[in-house]
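Reviewers of the previous submission asked for a worked example of the structure-prediction workflow described in the proposal, so we include one complete record here. The input consisted solely of the amino acid sequence. No template or homolog information was supplied to the procedure at any stage.
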Amino acid sequence: MEKMVYVLWRDAHEAEAAFNTRLLRELSAELLGLGAARLSINVVDEAVAAGAPLRQENTRPAPAGMVSFWLNSAHVRGPCEAALQRAVPRIAGYAVSEATALPNTAIVEDGVRTHGFSQLALVTKPPRLTYEGWLEVWMRDQTKIAVETQSTFFYCQNIVNRRLTYGAPDWHAIVTEGFPLAALTDPQVFFNAAGDPARYQENLDRMMQNCHRFIDFDKIDVIITSEYRFGSWADLDRGRISVREH
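From that input alone, the workflow returned the following structure tokens.
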């Protein structure tokens, strides 16, 4: 099977709540009916409003959400892509390889909001690095550092293999990380150091030093969202083993 990720934009004249409701009710049902498996929909809503200062917007207008799902092949994505194009004014689609270093073991029913919040990072390889060198720093070093320094309970790295839609930004990676809600407003919680300023500073410094090795911060987009999952997730997650307890 092949995984596809679509970044979505909202018409500025449509209310955020109405946009989100259409995605979660109408679009989810349509995509599942077209055969999309392990569907995930990320939206910006009131539940994550306190995390607005964590956003980084270098793509304008900024994306408003994301949809990901699996099909037997991207070559049969046409009906699903058409449904997305009917639902929103702009999409950017990518075929990706998924590496989930830290699966979310807290199973919820279809369509129920995942606990905490979901941070999306849309990353472009800096021109100073070769693709192989950039991938090595990200997949080898950053994976270990992110899991060890943050309060993450879900860490999914999507390596972009190819762009599927015309005009899609040239992002090389799409990362999804799950954090507890308290991390929206408390940096010490975010960096897994609640009540421990020294550990917070150590974790922050370690994270930022490595991020500067493979990220240009004037190119990255970070979106704070709520995640909803539909279709076959429970069976998949029961077969996974987390790399740490949380």
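The chain has one domain: 2-237. We consider this example representative of the routine output the project will generate in years two and three.
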